[in-house]
């Protein structure tokens, strides 16, 4: 094994071990609180719901461990068994190294590598979610979702791959800048049209019925300077009893979406406060900031791929022949390896992103409190959502600090009460 292969292997193992350790820490922490609802949560959950939330947390943690170990083992096997160079050789021998063929190789490999994860996704939905009463997905919907996803990938992803590979041949050494710019433009376009074209493939959206409730929400939108043309209800209950609210699209395409499950679980002032929180994300420019980071990530990723594609040691570490040049076939192995390894490195940065995203949540909560002129509705809404979703009320601080994109219920209530 080359020195770099050993580093890559060490990073994969370090990640798996860290995840197992954090999970263990969390499980122990949760178990110590198992027998009694902690005093601060007495009004939030009754004894039996609390027990179920503990069980749900533990079951999900244990299952997560299995998935993590499996993923790490598969990544090691795929990277170090010589499977990829072998498949690349076979594929080029059969289909050539034209741009269409090379894009096909990346596409097919991506699909093939996603297949082993399917049984886990199935188990999570039909065993775990089912057991805790969340699953409402039928097998038919589940299979249809996967097929639709595949179709969208083929219609959007494959042509994009072809274009990116074309850019390598057209623009030479600066290809990565062009490629990153095209990918970003493409992502923005998808964000723009997704509410109109992609999301209706998966869910039904109906405008919120006329009446006092709708008026109340529109009044909030006007009051907070968030002009919206429509508030729609999404049939989230088609798949799960978990609830949510969000808004999508930009400019004229913007719309507020409430899950039907959210409306069923919360009172009108509570829904209004959740909406105020979502508007807070928009008004505080969180969406733009998050988007800027992901755009920067695309540029960094392509710069990294372009650089790695020039390194002989990188190709050799995983058994590929190294060619210096700007043909698609020279760069494709670097793209594939980068895609496989990116998460291994990105994992260590995820806590930073989460710290940032939790700050946004506090800001959006604070915005909602001002917009509502009171904090009680939002606190009530957060409590109910924790209860209905069987959220873990007592995660280990290190675990939530590492993984949570949202502060815990207690942290959010604290901030809302204290005026943080
Ligand atoms: Zn939020």
Structure characterization notes:
By secondary structure, the protein is mainly alpha-helical. The protein is built from 17 helices and four strands. It has helices at 3-32, 47-80, 83-95, 99-114, 118-131, 139-171, 175-202, 212-223, 260-265, 268-283, 286-308, 312-317, 328-346, 350-372, 376-388, 397-403, 409-418; strands at 205-207, 231-234, 245-248, 255-259. The protein has a four-stranded mixed sheet with strand order 1-2-4-3, with helices on both faces. 25% of the residues are buried.
Short description:
By secondary structure, the protein is mainly alpha-helical.
List its traits.
4% strand, mainly alpha, 4-stranded mixed β-sheet, 4 strands, binds zinc ion, 420 residues
List the helices and strands and how they pair.
Layout: H1 3-32, H2 47-80, H3 83-95, H4 99-114, H5 118-131, H6 139-171, H7 175-202, E1 205-207, H8 212-223, E2 231-234, E3 245-248, E4 255-259, H9 260-265, H10 268-283, H11 286-308, H12 312-317, H13 328-346, H14 350-372, H15 376-388, H16 397-403, H17 409-418
Parallel strand pairs: 2-4
Antiparallel strand pairs: 1-2, 3-4
Helix pairs in contact: 1-2, 4-6, 4-13, 6-7, 7-11, 8-10, 10-14, 10-15, 11-13, 15-17
The protein binds zinc ion.
The site of zinc ion (ZN) has 4 residues, from α10 and α14.
Strand content: under 5%
- Alpha-beta content class: mainly alpha
Order of strands in the sheet with most strands: 1-2-4-3
Attached small molecules: zinc ion
Provide the low-confidence segments as ranges: none
The total count of helices amounts to 17
Q: How is the biggest beta sheet arranged?
A: 4 strands, mixed
Average pLDDT rating: 93
Radius of gyration over all CA atoms, rounded: 24 Å
Order of helices and strands: HHHHHHHEHEEEHHHHHHHHH
Shape: globular
Helix content: over 70%
> Distance between the terminal alpha carbons, to the nearest Å?
53 Å
Number of strands: 4
């Amino acid at each position: 094994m080359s020195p770099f292969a050993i580093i890559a292997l060490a990073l994969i193992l370090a990640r798996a071990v860290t995840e197992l350790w954090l999970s263990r820490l969390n499980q122990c922490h949760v178990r110590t609180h198992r027998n009694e609802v902690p005093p601060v949560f007495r009004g939030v959950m009754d004894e039996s719901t609390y027990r179920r939330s503990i069980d749900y947390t533990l079951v999900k943690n244990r299952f997560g461990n299995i998935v993590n170990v499996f993923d790490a083992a598969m990544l090691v096997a795929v990277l170090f068994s010589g499977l990829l160079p072998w498949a690349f050789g076979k594929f080029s021998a059969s289909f050539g190294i034209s741009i269409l063929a090379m894009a096909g190789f990346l596409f097919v490999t991506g699909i093939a590598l996603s297949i082993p994860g399917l049984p886990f996704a199935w188990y999570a939905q039909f065993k775990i979610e089912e057991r805790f009463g969340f699953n409402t997905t039928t097998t038919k919907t589940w299979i249809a979702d996967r097929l639709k996803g595949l179709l969208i990938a083929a219609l959007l992803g494959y042509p994009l791959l072809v274009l990116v590979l074309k850019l390598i041949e057209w623009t030479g050494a600066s290809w990565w800048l062009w490629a990153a710019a095209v990918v970003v433009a493409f992502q923005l376009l998808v964000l723009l049209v997704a509410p109109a074209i992609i999301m209706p493939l998966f869910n039904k959206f109906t405008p919120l019925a006329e009446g006092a409730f709708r008026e109340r929400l529109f009044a909030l939108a006007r009051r907070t300077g968030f002009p919206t043309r429509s508030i729609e209800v999404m049939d989230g209950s088609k798949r799960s009893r978990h609830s949510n609210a969000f808004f999508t699209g930009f400019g004229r395409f913007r719309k507020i979406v409430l899950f039907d499950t959210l409306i069923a679980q919360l009172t009108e002032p509570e829904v209004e406060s959740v909406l105020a929180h979502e508007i807070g994300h928009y008004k505080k420019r969180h969406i733009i900031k998050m988007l800027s980071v992901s755009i920067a990530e695309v540029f960094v990723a392509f710069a990294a791929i372009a650089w790695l594609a020039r390194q002989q040691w990188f190709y050799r570490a995983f058994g590929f022949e190294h060619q210096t040049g700007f043909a698609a076939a020279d760069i494709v192995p670097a793209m594939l390896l980068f895609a496989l390894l990116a998460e291994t490195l990105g994992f260590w940065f995820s806590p930073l992103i989460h710290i940032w995203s939790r700050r946004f949540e506090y800001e959006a909560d604070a915005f909602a409190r001002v917009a509502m002129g009171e904090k009680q509705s939002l606190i009530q809404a957060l409590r109910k959502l924790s209860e209905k979703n069987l959220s873990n009320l007592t995660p280990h601080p290190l675990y939530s600090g590492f993984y949570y994109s949202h502060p815990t219920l207690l942290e959010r209530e604290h901030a809302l009460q204290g005026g943080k």
